[in-house]
Design goal:
alpha+beta; 486 residues; seven-stranded mixed sheet
């Protein structure tokens, strides 16, 4: 009975201590200020995350990365170094099996932004990279509760591109951007297209369409790449097709050259026997040379080809040189005729007869009349020359011939003995003057013949030159028109 009485206070004391201890523990578990859901979720996701390991629970599972490209601007096209600089909006997403949670446990949070350096990111690069562009650093990615990671960032891309400048300034360039994993083969990391190819092709919603280049379309193509003896790698190619706007170059390059060529054609209407035509064409040639020096910095230069417009300028310069050569030839032909013989008969037949009919020269009858008159004068000069020689060698004078022919009333003259030496001297002087004048007339006739030949030859060469210039211009214009509207 006494033992039971002693155990009762001890039990009561033990019960009191237990109650106090539970009260203390209950006080320590009293909820204080709760932690934010995003912070708790971030701690939950990154607590045991290993960013150096591909985020799959089964290593045989392939990580599929979907990518997308939107062209924002064409910054520069360096034809000499074969480099294209573009500014693109690049997007990619993949499934990270280690970044999944139940939104009900975190205040219904369905997505969160995490630091890029804290999670696994695919090592996708552009094969054509030649330099690191000035791209802004985007330090975060979006993660959805089912494990989808979205990485969105703008990139300034400096890529190597095979630029074809033959059709400049109506050229169209096709440059590729090849996205591939540098390390993971296709069994570990595969690539796909985020959107449909048709949507990617004609998407110009963000393109700044105010520069020299116009975006035509963006083609996409998937392929597997492998080197002999190595694994296969997934590649996603985007072909950026751009076209140059030619209006500035047409106004600053083609029109001035065309004006100079038109002035060269107009210069043919100057008289062929005038020296002003030579000075005019030399001035045009000098002006065209200065024009080429000025525009040489504007033309694109590469080591593998020359643009057609450069060939056009060279041919125009050659045509100006040919025009100047033709002018010098005609001027030399119609000047200094005193040193030239008569025009050969075959030249008269070809140029003054056949060519005048072929060229529809309206005053060709005058040419025929002049040639007939020239032949008559030549024969008359020869006959007079032979008659004078006969009179000189026979010692006869015209007065004696008249006396022998019959009596004719004559004025009073000195006797034959007194006047014979004087008359012979006068007749010789008159004959010499007549022969000199006839010779001058013959030289003038030869000069007229060569002038007519030069005129017909000038018309013939001018029309041939005009046909060559027009054919060349029509050919180039047709080519450029086809390229522009292709």
């Amino acid at each position: 009975m006494a033992g039971a009485a002693l155990r009762a206070p001890f039990t009561l004391l033990l019960l009191t201590a237990v109650l106090q201890n539970e009260a203390t523990l209950a006080g320590s578990r009293t909820p204080g200020p709760s932690k934010p859901a995003l912070l708790r979720l971030s701690d939950y996701l990154l607590a045991h995350y290993e960013k150096g390991v591909r985020p799959v629970r089964d290593w045989r599972t392939t990580t599929n990365v979907a990518i997308d490209v939107m062209v924002y601007a064409i910054l520069s096209v360096d034809e000499k170094n074969q480099v294209l600089t573009t500014y693109i909006w690049y997007r990619q997403h993949w499934i990270d099996e280690f970044l999944q949670w139940d939104p009900a446990h975190f205040d219904n949070v369905t997505h969160i932004s995490l630091p890029t350096e804290s999670i696994w990111v695919p090592d996708i690069l552009i094969n054509e990279f030649v330099d690191v562009g000035k791209s802004p650093d985007i330090p975060y990615v979006y993660v959805h509760h089912y494990g989808e990671v979205r990485n969105l960032k703008p990139i300034q891309v400096m890529t190597a591109c095979s630029l074809d400048i033959y059709n400049f300034p109506f050229d169209v360039q096709n440059c590729s951007l090849t996205f591939t994993s540098w390390l993971h083969n296709i069994r570990d990391l595969n690539l796909s297209l985020w959107r449909q190819p048709e949507l990617v092709k004609f998407d110009k919603s963000v393109f700044m369409n105010q520069g020299e280049w116009e975006l035509l379309y963006v083609l996409s193509h998937f392929q597997e790449f492998s080197v002999e003896g190595s694994d296969s790698y997934a590649e996603m190619k985007f072909y950026v097709v751009i076209r140059r706007r030619p209006l500035f170059y047409a106004v600053s390059l083609l029109l001035p050259s065309s004006f100079l060529m038109v002035m060269d054609i107009v210069g043919f209407y100057l008289p062929p026997n005038s020296g002003e035509r030579v000075s005019f064409k030399i001035t045009l040639l000098l002006g065209y040379s200065v024009f080429l020096i000025i525009v040489s910095d504007t033309l694109p230069a590469t080591a593998i080809g020359t643009p057609l417009i450069g060939i056009y300028f060279v041919v125009c310069m050659a045509l100006l040189v040919i025009s100047l050569t033709e002018t010098i030839l005609i001027v030399c032909l119609v000047h200094k005729q005193d040193l030239q013989p008569h025009v050969p008969d075959w030249v008269k037949h070809l140029l003054l007869e056949r060519a005048t009919v072929l060229l529809c020269i309206r005053d060709r009858n005058q040419f025929s009349h002049s040639r007939a008159q020239s032949s008559d004068i030549s024969r008359h000069v020869e006959n007079n020359g032979s008659t004078a020689k006969l009179n000189h060698y026979s010692g006869e004078d015209p007065r004696e011939c008249e006396v022998a022919a019959g009596p004719r009333p004559m004025p009073a003259f000195p006797t034959e003995a007194e006047g014979s030496p004087l008359m012979h001297s006068i007749l010789r002087e008159i004959t010499t003057i007549r022969q000199f004048l006839e010779k001058q007339e013959e030289f003038h006739d030869v000069a007229r013949e060569w002038l007519q030949v030069g005129y017909v030859l000038d018309v013939l060469l001018f029309r041939a030159y005009l046909v060559a210039v027009l054919a060349y211009s029509v050919t180039l214009g047709t080519l450029w028109s086809v390229w522009q509207h292709a």
